[in-house]
Amino acid sequence: VITMGGIGPTHDDVTMRGVADGLGVGMSHSVAMEHLMHRLKQEVLEDGGQKGVSDLKCSTQRMCLMPDGTELLMEEGKEYPLLRCQNVYMLPGVPQFMRQQLTHLGRVLGCGAPFVSHRVGFSVDETTIADALARTAEEFVATSI
User: Fold this and answer.
1) Residue 26 is part of a domain; what is its CATH number?
2) Residue 56 belongs to a domain
3) Could you tell me if 89 and 1 are in contact, meaning their C-beta atoms sit under 8 angstroms apart?
4) Is residue 72 part of a domain?
5) Structural domain boundaries enclosing 89
6) N or C: the chain end with fewer CB closer than 10 Å?
């Protein structure tokens, strides 16, 4: 299962709670995530960010509350980990970070090909294009449409 979005610091970021409920596990504070958030905050301060903030904000602390058993899968050169709890992978919703995590997820799952995504919008009912989509899917079996 792959989720996208809802793992940030705002009140409407409820994916982690949903994953915990869905898996029947509790939620607990991740010390590893707290250390990561402190490191990232320190990098921001050293880069000229807000001075005088000694502790993580309450909103950022929310990102450290995770389903029990969640693993932080770090990748060399990336600042944020892929989150895995049992068979659920939780990805950020911010497009640039999501793309990085999709590529990382591909490596974790052993997929050789990179993830590529394109969105095409139509102003017609899906029944109008259903046959054409079916033919395209049959012609390009290795591609998920």
Assistant:
1) 3.40.980.10
2) yes
3) yes
4) yes
5) 2-139
6) C
State how many domains the chain has.
Answer: 1
Contacts of residues 50-58 at CB distance under 8 Å and 24 or more positions apart, as own/partner, are 57/9
Q: Which of 50-59, 95-104, 111-120 has the lowest mean pLDDT?
A: 50-59
Give the model confidence (pLDDT) of 52-84 as tens digits.
Answer: 444 567 777 888 999 999 999 998 888 788 999
Give the pLDDT score at 51. 47
pTM: 0.69
Q: How far is CA 65 from the centre of its chain?
A: 15
**pLDDT tens column, 4-58:** 998 988 888 999 999 999 999 999 999 999 888 888 777 665 656 554 444 567 7
Residue 33 contacts residue 63 (beta carbons within 8 Å): yes
Tally of CA atoms within 13 A in the half-sphere of 55 that contains its CB: 4
